[in-house]
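Researcher: Next entry in the queue.
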Amino acid sequence: MLLDALLRGGGRNALILADPEGVRAGLSEEGARRVGRDYEIEAVACANHGVFHAKVGALFGDDDAHLLVGSGNLTFAGWGGNLELVEHLHPSFAADAFDDAAAFFEQLAASAQIITTAGPACETIAGSLRRSAQGQPRAGNIHMVHSLDAPIAEQLALYADDLGGVTRLTTVSPYYDLRADGLGALATLLGIEKAHLHAHPAGTVRGPGSNAWPFEGGSKWQPVDVADAFGHDDRPLHAKSIELVCRKGRLLLSGSANVTHAGLFGRNVEAGVLRVQRASKSYWVTAPGTAPARLPADALDENETSDSAVGILSASLEGERIAGRALTPRLGGNASAVLRTPRGSHALGPVVVSGDGHFQLDAPGIEFESWENGRLILGLEQGSRCWEGFVSIAAALELIRRTGSIATRLMAMLAGTETPTDVAAILAWFREDPSRMPASLGIGGGGSGGRPDGTEGMVTLADLNAAALGANLLSGAPGEETSSAWRRTMALIRAVFRQSRGPWGAGGETDDDDDDDEKDREKRARSEEAANYRSLQIFDELLTTMLAPEAAGRNALMALSLSHFLADRIRPAPAKVQLWLDKVLPQIAALDGPESDLAAASILLHHAADRRDDNAIRARRYFLRRGIDPATIAVSPDVIPAFMALLGEGIDLDGFLGEVLTARTVGEQIDAYLAAGDGHGPDVGFDSLRSSPHWPSLDRALRDPASFAKLMVLETFRASCPRCHMRLPLAAGEDLRLRGLASCCGRILLNRDC
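Model: Structure for this entry, 754 residues:
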């Protein structure tokens, strides 16, 4: 729910760092369907068998930052069900803590105690924290302390010495060691003989291997109720805080560390906020409390650990390859890989794991399934042991990072679940900045025409390979490097517009419709109709920009894909679609991209629907002028179902292609005529010339070399006579341009480019 709110608000780069045990919990949580796609979970393991226990949140905007340090885990209970404590810090008053937090993330990336693949991300976070605190005052009264520097208890002792020593210790903690190991060591370090322990009236959060009280720690631990701060809350206690009343002030620590030996002295990675209040006379007010009763579950020491049957790994999918690392326990040698998705399992075969746990393996086609189904879980098996971890989908994470709030709509389109409102929003996003659109590419080879059974509405591997080769795609912000993941993502988006998914609602009412009343259905229909109308309006504006003269036809193929996508989904009036084709098709310079099949079929349909006598000749001329031999075209109406439905009633594309193959343009006929006049060809193949008013002169020239020599042959059209240089009359100029023949100065002009 928290991540949903962040994404809806335009958030991006959502990264969760979790202890391996937290990752294990997430792996078994079926509700975590979008992990690896909308957000990342990276495991952070401790080489000394400790627990990564810190709870730190860093939120960054373009020109602002916030830091949250507390006790709550990223769970329903941690964000509402439990009594938790969190410090919300800002650089304007806690710049020291931002410096400390930056050092914490830097040490996560570099410390030999830490095993993680999130080192680069931690370094990026550290840099952002330092930048956010630049130029801010540093009062020295608020610090973030963590156990990667030194044990939390030792740091408390140093600050306490600076304030003249401790006179009273009061602790708030849901967990203690059974024999008060951590509490006793802290008291000894601070030079005190007793301590006050908050006994929460509503009880504490219980966990495996935890103890709510130092039941075997002796009578010097006095139960109290810190009523004003904690006692009036009836939720189970999970907050952790320590107050040290000193001779020259007070220290107040809150954060993740329980009052246990592991939390204060031992192996755990902890983080908290320490407030240094010099000369303070404000302390917690306590009342006598009642220690909790010991339960049968209070039998284990927090220091006691047990090995989990499932190890933890980290992995990332980029394209068709998964790279990762087994984090804990150590893994090396030969293993077998299995990938789990919400749809089922995929055996990926054997994999070789290096001595430090790194591995790579091929995963063809998996990326496409992730768009539709969400999370991927990779498992490695070696004998009876197994390792598991979430797989981050690089393309999806890059999409969110660069596009923000529009990312969810783009993802819906990639998965084939887009709504009319999604399409309208995406088109508006493109219109706002047309450079966001995937560029039209010059790529050899076309698509395959139809789709394999069952793959309608989903991007295929052939689509992606065709769209990705030689891509010159949209980069991120100015000066930002274009990553391979981003290039692949934009290739996927471009490929979507070539998909045929049918009009919305074509499948009839859904099961959910049974629960809707008539008014709800009518309201939804009106909303979709309004969104479709807006899409058509926006696309008309976008099309004008895409086909502007300065674009020089670069966007024509992309415009054609968009035209068919909207025609397929919305089914507008045929006249509207015909207008789109009238604008787009003349600007297509070559049919050498992934849209080649779509373009070839659209061109044939456009000319066939004209139904003029010379439509086959004009279609042939269209192809020849772009260097395409019509005999090499394999066309299928299946690639343009929407255009066929709206414009192709009664049209047989294969039959019309046959007419195009047998037809000859006027230019081809002129070539045949000239070859016959030179004696290099038969006296056939120029029927259009024979029906021309100029045929008597042309016929005579075939038998009279002197007349033949007087013919003026133009390689390209020109509006003036090459002999007298006078501009041709308007009618004669049009005849020369369209029909290839005109006369001037008593001579015949032949335009071969016709």
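Model: The CA atoms of residues 329 and 509 lie 51 Å apart.
Researcher: Noted, moving on.
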